[in-house]
Write a structure and sequence with these properties.
With 213 residues, this protein is an alpha+beta fold. The protein folds into 2 domains: 5-130, Roll (Bifunctional nuclease domain), CATH 3.10.690; 138-211, no CATH class. The protein is 33% helix and 31% strand. The chain has 7 helices and 9 strands; from the N terminus they run βββααβββαβαββααα. The chain has helices at residues 41-50, 61-71, 113-123, 131-137, 175-180, 183-195, 199-211; strands spanning 5-14, 21-28, 33-40, 75-85, 88-98, 104-112, 127-129, 139-142, 145-147. The protein has a 9-stranded mixed beta sheet with strand order 6-5-4-7-1-2-3-8-9. The longest helix is centred in the C-terminal third of the chain and has 13 residues, at 183-195. It is elongated and about 60 Å long. The two termini are 30 Å apart.
């Protein structure tokens, strides 16, 4: 796995755009690149539960899978997010078990990314992704703020995307709105979206910027 990038979980936030949807934010080891992934409510609850926000009256299918795996001496070695198509992340889980001769053998199983991450936390297994995915969907940070790697020295004016009261309407920025905006304003809006933890919007803006390259 030398060619893969190791990730850690930065947090989970409620989508500011779509009801019942959450944003799982992953980041690379040095925290300069963050990867927002859209997940559903049930997976968000399971991940939050496994991160330590526990309600002892609740359990999830992921907990049953952990118990089952331990009973049969199955080890989850890693989760790999290996592909991104039309905004959907594809992942696989790398397991280690025993064959009939009691020899260790590895199995690779495709999985929904949110489920794979929920399991990785319970098994304390690492999460990886590829450089290609980071280049497509990663948001770069410098000193805590998002930047465009190719335009680090440029400045942006906030007024061009604000109303008279200085308020940005995140929820009104649909695909057509983004297509009409200048690249300069898109980068400014990207800054605001990430700072205000609107990661779904940030991912949409990044996709529009990539489309223009």
């Amino acid at each position: 796995m030398d060619q893969l990038i190791k990730l850690t979980i930065r947090g989970i936030s409620l989508s500011q755009i779509q009801s019942g949807i959450y944003i799982l934010l992953l980041e690379e080891e040095y925290g300069k690149i963050k990867l927002p992934i859209i997940i559903e409510s049930s997976q968000a609850q399971s991940i939050a539960y496994s991160l330590g926000k526990r309600d002892t009256s609740r359990s999830f299918t992921h907990d049953l899978f952990l118990t089952f795996s331990r009973a049969f001496h199955i080890k989850l070695k890693a989760v790999v997010i290996y592909k991104l198509v039309n905004g959907i992340f594809f992942s696989y889980i790398l397991f280690e078990g025993l064959n009939q001769k009691e020899e260790k053998i590895e199995h690779k199983i495709d999985s929904k990314t949110s489920d794979a991450i929920a399991l990785s936390i319970r098994f304390q297994a690492p999460i990886y992704t590829t450089k290609e995915i980071f280049d497509k969907a990663g948001i770069y940070f410098e000193n805590g703020f998002p930047i465009d790697k190719d335009k680090e020295n440029e400045t942006s004016e906030y007024e061009s995307i604000m109303d008279n009261n200085g308020i940005i309407f995140y929820k009104e920025k649909n695909k057509k709105d983004l297509e009409k905006m200048t690249e300069r304003d898109l980068n400014t809006l990207l800054n605001h979206a990430v700072v205000n933890e609107c990661y779904e919007l940030a991912a949409q803006i990044k996709k529009e910027l990539d489309r223009r390259e």
